[in-house]
Amino acid sequence: MKAVFILGPTASGKSSLALWLADAFKEQRQFEIISVDSALVYRGMDIGTAKPSLAERQQVAHHLIDIIDPNEAYSAARFVNDASRMVREIHARGNFPLIVGGTMLYVKALCDGLHDLPVSDPLVRAQVLHDAQQLGWPAMHEALRQVDAVTAQRLAPNDAQRISRAIELYRQTGRSMSAWLAETAPGPATDLDFEILSLEPSRRAPLHDRIARRFQLMLEQGFMEEMRALRARGDLNADLASMRCVGYRQAWEWLDQESEAKAPAIQKMIEQGVIATRQLAKRQLTWLRSMPQRQVIDCLDQNLNALAFEHLKKAVGA
C-alpha cells in the first residue's frame, strides 16, 4: 500500500501545494491528506500553527488535525499507529493518501520504526517539569550532562521536550537515553510503501523572507488574541509540549512580561519568533538531507506545481 510524503521546512508551501495537487488530480484520483505536524494536532491552536482553514478541510479531507487538547501529549509512537491505520483506511475507500507536514521525527518513526523505550511515567514527568520550573531548562540540561553526556551533547540547552524525556528515562530506569538507544534496535518499520517529495529552497534568503511575512500575517490575523485565550483557560503552562511550539513559546514569554508591566516592544517578540522559526527550518532541512531516497524540488521554482504534478503522477500511477 503506497503513500506519498510532501515534506519541507516551514513556509516552503507544503500545504498549498497539497491542496493544488488534490484539485489537479480530482478527475483521476481522490486524495486525502494526513498531517505530519506535531502542532496541528492541538485544538484551539489555529493561527500560530498556520492550520488549514475549515474551507480547505472541506475541500480535501484532512486527518490528524484537532485531535487532542493542548494540555494533552502526543507522541511519535501514537502518530505511527494513527497514520498507518489511516493510510489503510484511505486506500480501502479507493482514495490515495498524501502525508503532508514538517515534523521529521514522526516521518522517521513511520518510515524506519521506533526504538522500544519504556513508556513515560506521568509521575516522573511531573517531577521533572516541577524541577524545570524551579531551575530552568539550561540547569536541567547540565543535570542531564552529568548522567548522559552523549545525549546532552546533541541537545540544545533549551530543548525542553527532549531534555525532559531523557531525564525522565534515567530517573525511571537508572539507565541513560544513549544506553537505551545503543542497545535497543528500532522496532520494525511499517510495511507500507512510501515516496518522499521534498520541497527545499535553492536559496535561504527567500525562505527567511517568507517566514518573516508569515509571522507578521499571523499577528494581523489575531495570534496574540489566540494566545491570551489559551492562557486564560488556566490549565496550561509554558512547559507543556503544546506551548513549546515555535511562536507560542515566544508569545507566552512576552505575555508573562506584559502581565508584570515590563512588556518589551512587540517587535522584539516578533524577532525572537522569526529567529526561532528560521532555526526550526534549518533543523528540518538537516533531517531531510539525511533521507537519500527523497525526490527534491526547489520550493522557489516558478514551476513547482507542474514539477510536483509529474512526480506524483508516476507515484500514484495516474
Which terms summarize this structure?
single chain, 318 residues, alpha/beta, six-stranded parallel beta sheet
**How far apart, in Å, are the first and last alpha carbons?**
15 Å
Radius of gyration computed on alpha carbons: 20 Å
Largest beta-sheet details: 6 strands, parallel
Helix fraction, binned, reads 40-55%
Strand order of the largest sheet: 3-2-4-1-5-6
Q: Which series of helices and strands comes N to C? A: EHEHEHEHHHHHHEHHHHEH
Show unreliable segments. none
Beta strands, count? 6
What is the average of the pLDDT values?
91
Anisotropy-based shape: globular
Q: Structural class from helices and strands?
A: alpha/beta
Care to describe what's here?
This protein is of the alpha/beta class and 318 residues long. Helices cover 54% and strands 10% of the residues. Strand 2, helix 2 and strand 3 form a beta-alpha-beta unit. Helix 3 (76-92) crosses helix 4 (104-112). The protein has helices at 14-24, 54-59, 76-92, 104-112, 122-135, 137-147, 149-154, 160-173, 177-183, 204-221, 223-232, 248-259, 266-289, 304-316, and strands at 2-7, 31-36, 62-63, 96-101, 193-200, 295-298.
Fold blueprint:
Blueprint: E1 2-7, H1 14-24, E2 31-36, H2 54-59, E3 62-63, H3 76-92, E4 96-101, H4 104-112, H5 122-135, H6 137-147, H7 149-154, H8 160-173, H9 177-183, E5 193-200, H10 204-221, H11 223-232, H12 248-259, H13 266-289, E6 295-298, H14 304-316
Parallel strand pairs: 1-4, 1-5, 2-3, 2-4, 5-6
Helix pairs in contact: 1-14, 3-4, 5-6, 5-8, 6-8, 10-13, 11-12, 12-13
